[in-house]
Amino acid sequence: MIYKGCEVSEVLAKIDQDDVLVFPTDTVYGIGASIHSPKALDRIFEIKNRPTEKSLIILCADEKQLEEIVGSLSLEVRKIIDAFLPGGLTLILNCYQSLPNEITRGKKTIGVRIPNHEVALKLLRALGPLATTSANLSGEPSPTEVEDDNPVIHRVDYVFDDGPTKGQVPSTILDCTSEEFVILREGAITFEEIQKVLNKK
Question: Which of 142, 59, 125, 52 is nearest to 43 (CA)?
Fold first, then answer.
């Protein structure tokens, strides 16, 4: 079922923990499910034809939710969060909370992000953190709007259509698990912007 972004509040009571959703973020549309539902998490891989060795990232509503996943944050990570989140930056951090293998695929690290989009944030505040990836078939471009020819939107329980996303490009992925932070994918936020924040005195 497809709903407008403005209808999120009305639909929330209907959403079950085992449901799979498509919704907008500030970068691209994502497909997501509760971090507590292995059944729904498995469905994400089936719907996307996603290789099972690939992990998912977790979207959070705020820093509190994020810390429940990754534990206390270092000063350098806090600098990054204060500067760029909510926004188009995914941080790779060590897991603190025990997460289903369907999310981590055996890794001891996890990607986390706070999206800068009110529809996504409403869902996250109400449902808790969601394990996500882009709402496209594996190998296809990440969608920046809901289009009828995208088979993913016909395979999920709920779609929230809020028009084209503002960012139009995926988030930057920054690995913060070692002393030297490393960009794994440059997207919405540049390496230079991150360096400026880390070099602040």
Answer: 52
Answer whether 96's CB lies under 8 Å from 70's CB. yes
Q: Is the pLDDT of residue 200 over 80?
A: no
**CA–CA separation, 189 vs 174, rounded Å?**
10
What are the domain boundaries of the chain? 2-198
Taking the whole predicted model, whether its pTM rises above 0.85 is answered as: yes
Q: Decide: 94 and 112 in contact? Cβ < 8 Å.
A: no
Angstrom distances, CA of residue 43 to CA of 34, 48, 116, 158, 173: 11, 8, 26, 13, 24
63/47 Cα distance (integer angstroms): 30
Domain 2-198: CATH superfamily, name plus number: DHBP synthase (3.90.870.10)
Neighbour order of strands in the sheet with 109-113: 2-4, 158-161, 21-24, 29-34, 130-134, 57-59, 109-113, 89-94, 172-175, 182-185
Q: What is the pLDDT of residue 132?
A: 98
Average pLDDT of the chain is: 95
Can you give the C-alpha Rg of the chain in angstroms?
16
